[in-house]
Amino acid sequence: MEVLGLSLTLLVLFVSFGFMVGVLFGFFGMGGSFLITPTLLLLDYPASVAIGSGLAFYFGTSVIAVLKHYDIGQVDYKLGAIMFVVLSIGIELGSRLVFGLEALGIANFVTGVAYVVLLAGIGALFLRRASNLEDDEDDAGDVSDDEIPPVGQKIQSYSVPPMISLTAGGRASLWTISGAGGSVGLVSGLIGVGGGFIRMPAIYYLIGTPLSAAVGTSLFAGLFSGAFGAFTYGMSGSVDLTVVSLLLVGSALGARIGSAATATVDEDDVIVYFGIMMVLASAGIALSELANWLGTGALDLVSVLLLVGSSFAVASMILYQVVRSGGTDEPDTQPAPDRGD
Amino acid sequence: MIESLSAPVQATLVVGAILVQAVALYVGYGILERVATPLIETMTKT
């Protein structure tokens, strides 16, 4: 039986996967698009459709994130506007590169390898954070949201004209902004991620804005660049609107539950599992690439199980802890700022 | 039907459809949350 051109199994898979991704990333304050594109790749969608749909999903989650924080904290609108322009140029270049790679027949391979590295890297960062939790707690009081990080101050000290005045103080070279924004945009356009997890640190560390302004400005620039990414891939018909809609239906609900779960579940209890999940997802894509290289479909099921199954397992763990807490609201963590990945 | 439109119009419709869906989901689930939360609280207390 087919509904909206998809089998019932796929339809249920997309809504439930969207829900689990929503729970995970609502809980950890991210958008989760970097799990969508590799899943679509594993399900044999062409690279351009997987990337285009990933960016469109990211745009949808960004809209919801901005509505959630409709006064999105401190926003440097001038920096946000410049970031939007350079991000869009990067996305355009990235998308052209994808279509070029697709013409050469290696787009799925290149995107797959990029995801193996990306997810393993994020997984390693979270595992490291999990192993250093005590140190983080000690350091937490030392960093003010209004301070410009030392790296940012150092970069700002190099005066390469034209210089732009930042709303939150200090000046940044247009070249730094273009380099940081253009690189993030290129990565977004090339592999279909919103890139909030690199855009926000780029604004904070490289351009040198206070953390509070970096989160808001990243969300602001990300919303418009997400729309531009969806438009760019939509021009070539590479956005599967049915898939994106099903994922959003699940994700919007999951994100609410995940965000609310931060009041009853301690992030520290699940962060290590999230890190392991990312590493397993990376292994799943690596296996899929290996299977393609060997010309066998035997590992496909294992790959999907590793990627989708590990996300389900960690999201279920969060939901289980919410149910077990039985509504005893003991807020022991603050909801993570939504970086809209 | 959408395929008969020009590429920029198609792309704009895609972006518009996602925007509308996202807003509708945000509002819809918000209403659902307001209705469901007191019900769940009542059920867990009894």
Along the chain, the helix and strand elements of chain A come as EEHHHHHHHEEHHHHHH
* Number of H- or I-type helical stretches of chain B: 1
User: Main sheet of chain A, how many strands, which sense, barrel?
Assistant: 2 strands, antiparallel
Uncertain runs of chain B: none
The profile of the biggest β sheet of chain B is: none
Structural class assignment of chain A: mainly alpha
Please give the radius of gyration of chain B in angstroms. Answer: 19 Å
**Quaternary organisation of the protein chains:** heterodimer
The sequence of SSEs of chain B as H and E is H
The helix fraction of chain B, in percent, is over 70%
**What is the arithmetic mean of pLDDT of chain B?**
85
Features:
heterodimer; A: 341 residues; mainly alpha; two-stranded antiparallel ribbon; two-stranded antiparallel sheet; 13 helices; 4 strands; globular; B: 46 residues; 1 helix; 85% helix; rod-shaped; cell membrane (chain A); Probable membrane transporter protein (chain A)
Short description:
The complex is a heterodimer of chains A (341) and B (46). In chain A, 74% of the residues lie in helices and 3% in strands. Chain A is mainly alpha-helical and 341 residues long.
What does this structure look like?
The complex is a heterodimer of chains A (341) and B (46). Chain A has one domain (2-325). Chain A has 341 residues and is mainly α. Chain A is 74% helix and 3% strand. Chain A has helices spanning 8-28, 33-42, 47-68, 77-104, 107-131, 133-140, 150-157, 174-191, 196-207, 211-235, 241-261, 267-294, 300-325, and strands at residues 2-3, 6-7, 163-165, 171-173. Chain B has 46 residues and is an all-alpha fold. Chain B has one domain. Chain B has one helix at residues 7-45. The termini of chain B are far apart. Chains A and B meet through helix 3, helix 10 and helix 11 of A and helix 1 of B. Chain A: InterPro entries: TM_pro_TauE-like.
